[in-house]
Amino acid sequence: MQPPASPTPAPDLPADPYPFLDLLVTLLVFLAIILAAWLAARWLMRRMYGPGAASGGRLRVVERVPLEPRRTLYLVEAGEKLLLIGSTDHDVRVLSEFTRDQLPAPATPERRSFLDTLRAVGHKSGHGGDTPAP
Q1: Domain-embedded: residue 82
Q2: pLDDT tens, 89-104?
Q3: Could you tell me if residue 119 is inside a domain?
Q4: Phi, psi angle pair for 7, to nearest 5°
Q5: Averaged pLDDT score across all residues of the chain
């Protein structure tokens, strides 16, 4: 008698015909979660610290100058007044009060080309601007 015929083994096929599709979907889900977390953090930071955090809109931070990691100067517009406010970890004080007319316009820095700056450095060091150094 002959032994029963064994079935031919099926070739090893992956359980999912598109394994990379699952990986792509997982990657897109994680990217969507990271994007949502970033947008939520950005919205929260603007709501807590950004200009316009005051609901009435009567206050506006015109300028902020960090002096040290925990000390900052703020120029705040409150109606018709400008307030210079100093803040530390433990204290917030109004240092001065201005009107728009009392505050000088901000100075604009002089902008020079790189070549002009290079020539100025050459003149200071004693080399001629157009002649090469010996």
Answers
A1: yes
A2: 999 999 999 888 887 7
A3: no
A4: -70, 150
A5: 79
Q: How many domains does the chain have?
A: 2
Pair (99, 76) in one structural domain: yes
What domain range includes position 23?
Answer: 19-49
> How far is it, in rounded angstroms, from Cα 96 to Cα 11?
84
> What sections of 3-57 are H helices per DSSP?
19-49
What pLDDT, in 10s, does the model give residues 19-58? 788 889 999 999 999 999 999 998 888 777 765 554 557 7
Q: For residue 121, tell me if it sits in a domain.
A: no
pTM over 0.70: no
Cβ neighbours, 10 Å, residue 82: 19
3-class SS of residue 19 = helix
Residue 123 lies in a domain: no
